[in-house]
């Protein structure tokens, strides 16, 4: 037993090597940046570190535990666990990191490029760890590991050049931030700290109630409490459960800030507009991945399943949660997507528009979590909500980063890309970029053969798949609620299409302003271009061949029927 | 030989890529490549359809029509390809038992529409030869993507694949209207896109909902079996049909049973009622997308705008093919997948809306001064007739409706072509600017008169049979949901009005004293040239052929039409025997249908 415990507390270290590589590389960058200022050098180092981390992750993907006992000990004792969900999220964050490093190649002034890339690497570590965290403290640390570098990059980025002319770009590199950028950085900093405090506050209640910070332990404790049989026992327990609800609301609120969920979304448009395109892209991607990973872990949607012999534990074993949580998430999803889409209609600034778009997409993703408590325990459900969320997260990452990357590429090559009007006639001046942008936009709309369509399809399927017992009126009512959510999402998707189409229409249906082609400097930034293409390939690839990703996601999220004893199979490598 | 159909799908895609890669410089090469590709498509489609028609008509007329199948038998589907696209569930031994499939094929319902697509594509390439002078390669690339989407919708036998192609048609048409359209093109393109997208997203929900709920209901009804998801249309139809029949029979049997089975009866009724509600909502959801596309009247406002703004090729494809996606969706999906809801809800609501559309569209046409707008509104009217025949839900009406889809594609496509040719010469579409053009442009006038006659249904040309059958079908409507004769009578007035506005247009533009619009600056006005003749002749020929010798058409479509008719007939019989259906009839949506909309509903239920 002691040996098991010892192994549980130390055994994860070899599997942390990818994170260690990235952390070490970050240190090298921070130090090296003081010696030499060369964006190409430090960018390549960061890329190399990411590839190395990815390689190590591929070589040692999942730990194996000899006995069921050992697996159980790890589950209830280890600060981080490496189950298949953690693997998926770490893979996500490394791929996302590669795109971001390429994307942000020119984002910082030459002198600070090393610091910028180091921050990105730390964020990648944070994203991966928030997927692997097995207790509240580790989770909080992981989340902060994504947040704190974000504050830095908001200050590190180039001052947003209000005019695209080359003088300001060349000469103003060292000049401080302009007022909107400062406002953005401050706003983000204070609100982010506030949200972290909320999360901590909620976590402290959870710890106080359950006496443990271990996440499976928490779920177990709440399950036992809510199963208290005798009425007199129940009387003692129920206020505690009420308190746990309050605690969870705090945690959800704190995480909601990262997900830009209504009503914690309002910073996003200002911050995205105020800061640079690269920073906005980082903010649209990194906190969302970390936030959804944390939400899924804290709320106990997915408990680590570490050993093939382990019987499937129905996750979210907390009746009070599965009663009330969907209601909370339902409301958040409905309001978030509607607010995001309706306000998106009014925007002219591209980054602001994409900010509202990212709010709307967070709303779509919440649908998956809202229906998950009903689906995870249904044996023959087509999807189980959580897997749809992670699928959508991948799709969202590819298409949103792609759209931002196009703007960044245009920006670095001298074409202003601030407002929709700036993109007028882009199909004439830059046919390739316009076509790629259209691909990302149509994916955001959810047109078939793109990643966005498959994501929406799975979310809709989840919402429509909620099983109902036709003899129980309440269950039918709930079913109707979820169908209503799907209909609302469909209407929202149509509303959202309007503002994405405005961009597409601007690029294709309008003539370029006179003299624009002369002003455009034909300077190419290959790394940014590579990021654009990588996103495009992912967007199309996921859309046309969704099977490998879907399989990976479904393996990562254990499902009632799939994890029957002996039925748990490792993820198959996608062919090709 | 499934490869032929795959080739027909791959060819437009390859052409689109090739043309896009040719770039802006090589306009002539782009045009010739497009022309060859369109010709090759037409050849392929002709080979497929003729061999299919021959097989149906002569070699094996014995697709056993007495067998009484209630689904599109998958043996009837020729040129079939069926591959798993996205496996969703795998059994223990590793076989995939539910998957989204790439399932395409040819059957009686889609064969002629696919041929029509190929014919009109050739026409579009020809007519764009001089009309499109800017961004030529982009235009042709989008045009071929559009062809891929349209052919794909018709050929799909998997609901998700159907939806994928259905949505895929939006993107190219958005660009075709938006870039090469008239002055209001941006607004028109966006309005078109949003209307259709909003509708079709709800269609997607309906389709997914049906696919997902079906096994649940089956499992409630028959817990022993395992009930897998299926996305294949034939299987879905078969399973829906079985479920409809079994649930209904169970209720009927239990009603005869002794009183101690009361609990079972209640349960069976609850199941049946639940299933009918599901069907109703599935039907409503699917209707949202298809009714926008048709377009049914309150949702039609995008159509005249899009038509008027679109370039000629866009108008031709929009009128000729894209509107048919809506009616085809009703025929292929809505009616067979939700027969009871089609009968109880679809017939009164859509039948009434169809009549309203016929008359309203006709009067709108009558009031237009712009020839293109006139033709656009006439589409609303003609498609109303098509829907009227479809929701007669009997063999005659369905055949007429399908024929009317083809007819409308040919004649309205040709009308848009002719209007486009006129516009290219004089740069005006106002009727008041023209007069006596018959003396100036002989051939154009001949074609215009010919197509007009086909459009208004002169016996001997194609329009006559379609209109006759659609109206006769509705006259014959056997159910008690609407008064078929009344709807048919009102619908027939649309035919009269159609003759009125079309002939008024012909008289105004082509007869009387010559009055040419000012055309200084344009080249000397000449009659149709060879290219334009080549664009028009195939269409005119098909109009004549369909009018004189429609037998191959009827023979090829009969088995599938009979299946749909039989499914609807079974639903009608159930509705007649239904003693407790009033529960459904008085649900909100039916009250709405009855009181708010239906002019023709008789009210009260036959006991």
Tell me what the structure shows:
The complex is a heterodimer of chains A (576) and B (607). By secondary structure, chain A is mainly alpha-helical. Chain A has 2 domains: 1-160 and 178-192 and 267-317; 320-560, no CATH class. In chain A, 71% of the residues lie in helices and 0% in strands. Chain A has helices at residues 2-10, 17-35, 39-59, 68-77, 84-103, 113-132, 136-156, 166-171, 179-210, 215-226, 231-259, 267-274, 277-298, 319-344, 350-375, 386-412, 426-429, 431-445, 451-464, 473-509, 516-519, 526-544, 547-556. In chain A, helix 6 packs antiparallel against helix 7 and helix 16 packs across helix 23 (547-556). Chain A is globular and about 80 Å long. Mean pLDDT of chain A is 82; it is low at 160-174 and 561-576. Chain B has one domain. Chain B has 21 helices and 2 strands. Chain B has a two-stranded antiparallel sheet. In chain B, helix 9 (262-293) runs antiparallel to helix 11. Chains A and B meet through helix 19 and helix 20 of A and strand 1, helix 5, helix 6, helix 7 and helix 9 of B.
């Amino acid at each position: 037993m002691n040996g098991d415990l010892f192994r549980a507390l130390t055994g994860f270290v070899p599997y942390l090597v990818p994170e260690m590589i990235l952390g070490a590389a970050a240190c090298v960058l921070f130090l090296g940046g003081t010696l030499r200022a060369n964006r190409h050098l430090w960018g390549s180092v960061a890329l190399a570190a990411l590839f190395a981390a990815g390689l190590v992750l591929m070589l040692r993907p999942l730990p194996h535990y000899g006995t069921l006992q050992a697996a159980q000990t790890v589950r209830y004792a280890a600060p981080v666990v490496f189950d298949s969900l953690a693997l998926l999220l770490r893979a996500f964050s490394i791929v996302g990191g590669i795109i971001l490093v390429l994307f942000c190649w020119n984002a910082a002034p030459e002198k600070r490029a090393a610091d910028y890339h180091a921050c990105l690497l730390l964020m990648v570590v944070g994203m991966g760890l928030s997927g692997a965290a097995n207790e509240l403290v580790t989770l909080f640390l992981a989340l902060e590991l994504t947040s704190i570098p974000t504050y830095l990059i908001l200050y590190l980025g180039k001052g947003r050049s209000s005019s695209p002319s080359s003088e300001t770009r060349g000469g103003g590199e060292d000049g401080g931030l302009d007022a909107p950028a400062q406002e953005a950085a401050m706003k983000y900093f204070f609100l982010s700290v506030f949200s972290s405090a909320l999360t901590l506050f909620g976590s402290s209640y959870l710890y106080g109630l359950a006496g443990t910070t271990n996440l499976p332990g928490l779920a177990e404790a709440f399950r036992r409490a809510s199963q208290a049989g005798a009425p007199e026992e129940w009387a003692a327990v129920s206020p505690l459960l009420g308190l746990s609800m309050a605690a969870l609301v705090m945690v959800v609120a704190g995480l909601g800030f990262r997900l830009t969920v209504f009503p914690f979304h309002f910073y996003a448009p200002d911050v995205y507009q105020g800061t640079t395109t690269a920073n906005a892209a980082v903010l649209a991607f990194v906190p969302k991945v970390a936030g959804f990973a944390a939400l899924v872990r804290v709320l106990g949607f997915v408990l680590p399943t570490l050993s093939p012999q382990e019987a499937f534990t129905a996750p979210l074993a907390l009746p009070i949660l599965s009663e009330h949580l969907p209601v909370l998430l339902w409301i958040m999803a409905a309001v978030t997507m509607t607010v995001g889409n309706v306000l998106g209609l009014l925007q002219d600034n591209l980054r602001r528009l994409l900010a509202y778009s990212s709010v709307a997409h967070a709303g779509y993703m919440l649908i998956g979590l809202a229906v998950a408590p009903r689906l995870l325990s249904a044996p023959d459900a087509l999807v189980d909500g959580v897997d749809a969320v992670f699928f959508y997260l991948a799709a969202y990452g590819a298409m949103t980063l792609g759209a931002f990357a196009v703007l960044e590429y245009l920006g670095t090559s001298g074409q202003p890309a601030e407002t929709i009007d700036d993109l007028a006639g882009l199909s004439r001046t830059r046919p390739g970029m316009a076509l790629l942008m259209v691909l990302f936009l149509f994916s955001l709309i959810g047109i078939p053969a793109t990643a966005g369509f498959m994501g929406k399809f799975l979310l809709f399927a989840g919402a429509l798949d909620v099983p109902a017992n036709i003899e129980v009126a309440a269950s039918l009512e709930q079913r109707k609620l979820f169908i209503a959510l799907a209909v609302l999402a469909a209407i929202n998707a149509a509303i959202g299409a309007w503002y994405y189409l405005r961009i597409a229409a601007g690029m294709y249906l309008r003539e370029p302003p006179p003299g624009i082609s002369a002003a455009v400097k034909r300077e190419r930034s290959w790394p940014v271009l590579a990021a654009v293409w990588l996103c495009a390939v992912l967007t199309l690839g996921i859309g046309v061949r969704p099977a490998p990703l879907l399989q990976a996601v479904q393996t990562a999220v254990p499902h009632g029927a799939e994890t029957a004893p002996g039925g748990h199979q490792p993820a198959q490598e996608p062919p090709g | 030989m499934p490869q032929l159909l795959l080739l027909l799908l791959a060819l437009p895609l390859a052409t689109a890529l090739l043309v896009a890669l040719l770039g802006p410089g090589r306009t002539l090469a782009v045009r010739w490549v497009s022309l060859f590709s369109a010709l090759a498509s037409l050849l392929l489609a002709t080979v497929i359809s003729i061999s299919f028609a021959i097989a149906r008509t002569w070699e094996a007329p014995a697709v056993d029509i007495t067998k009484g199948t209630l689904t599109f038998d998958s043996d009837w589907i020729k040129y079939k390809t069926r591959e798993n696209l996205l496996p969703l569930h795998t059994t223990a031994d590793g076989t995939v038992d539910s998957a989204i499939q790439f399932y395409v094929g040819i059957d009686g319902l889609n064969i002629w529409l696919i041929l029509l697509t190929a014919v009109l594509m050739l026409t579009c390439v020809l007519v764009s030869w001089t009309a499109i002078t800017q961004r030529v390669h982009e235009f042709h690339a989008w045009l071929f993507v559009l062809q891929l989407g349209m052919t794909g919708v018709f050929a799909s036998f998997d609901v998700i694949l159907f939806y994928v192609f259905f949505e895929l048609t939006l993107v190219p048409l958005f660009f075709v209207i938006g870039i090469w359209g008239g002055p209001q093109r941006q607004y028109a393109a966006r309005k078109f896109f949003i209307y259709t997208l909003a509708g079709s997203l709800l269609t997607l929900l309906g389709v997914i909902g049906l696919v997902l709920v079906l096994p649940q209901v089956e499992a409630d009804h028959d817990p022993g079996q395992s009930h897998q998801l299926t996305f294949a249309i034939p299987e879905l139809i078969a399973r829906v049909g079985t479920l409809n029949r079994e649930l209904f029979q169970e209720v009927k049997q239990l009603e005869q049973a002794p009183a101690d089975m009361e609990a079972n009866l209640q349960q069976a009724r609850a199941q049946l009622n639940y299933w009918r509600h599901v069907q109703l909502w599935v039907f409503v959801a699917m209707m949202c997308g298809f009714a926008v596309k048709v377009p049914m009247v309150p949702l039609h406002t995008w159509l005249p705008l899009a038509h008027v703004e679109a370039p000629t090729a866009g108008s031709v494809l929009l009128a000729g093919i894209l509107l048919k996606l809506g009616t085809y969706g009703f025929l292929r999906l809505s009616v067979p997948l939700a027969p009871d809801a089609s009968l109880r809800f679809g017939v009164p609501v859509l039948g009434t809306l169809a009549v309203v559309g016929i008359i309203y569209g006709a009067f709108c046409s009558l009031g237009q001064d712009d020839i293109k707008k006139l033709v656009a509104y006439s589409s609303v009217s003609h498609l109303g007739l098509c829907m009227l025949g479809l929701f007669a839900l009997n063999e005659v009406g369905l055949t007429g409706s399908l024929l009317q889809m083809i007819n409308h594609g040919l004649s309205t496509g040709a009308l848009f072509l002719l209007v486009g040719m006129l516009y290219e010469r004089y740069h005006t579409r106002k009727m008041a600017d023209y007069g006596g053009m018959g003396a100036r442009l002989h051939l154009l006038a001949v074609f215009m008169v010919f197509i007009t006659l086909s459009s208004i249904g002169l016996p001997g040309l194609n329009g006559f049979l379609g209109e006759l059958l659609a109206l006769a079908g509705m006259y014959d409507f056997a159910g008690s949901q609407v008064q078929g004769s009344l709807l048919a009578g009102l619908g027939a007035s649309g035919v009269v009005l159609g003759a009125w506005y079309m002939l008024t247009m012909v008289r105004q533009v082509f007869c009387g004293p010559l009055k040419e619009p000012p055309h200084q600056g344009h080249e000397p006005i000449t009659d149709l040239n060879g290219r334009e003749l080549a664009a028009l002749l195939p269409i005119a020929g098909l109009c004549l052929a369909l009018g004189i010798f429609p037998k191959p058409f009827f023979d090829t479509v009969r088995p599938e039409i009979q299946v749909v008719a039989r499914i609807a007939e079974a639903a009608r019989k159930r509705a007649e025997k239904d003693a407790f259906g009033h529960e459904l009839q008085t649900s909100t949506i039916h009250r709405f249908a009855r009181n708010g909309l239906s002019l023709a509903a008789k009210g009260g239920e036959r006991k």
